[in-house]
Write a structure and sequence with these properties.
Blueprint lengths: L4 H31 L2 H7 L1
Length: 45
């Protein structure tokens, strides 16, 4: 099923925004993990 070109464009932009958001939150998480002491890491996993 094909939507209107405008709806498709909005959907595409939304998807790109989600991907960017996910990538940023993953980077933030890994930055936080690397800043943690090793003992704290073992508890979380």
């Amino acid at each position: 099923m094909k939507g209107s070109p405008i709806a498709e464009l909005i959907d595409e932009k939304h998807r790109v925004g989600e991907i960017v958001f996910l990538a940023e939150s993953m980077q933030e998480r890994s930055r936080r993990i690397s800043a943690m002491p090793t003992k704290q890491l073992d508890i979380e996993n």
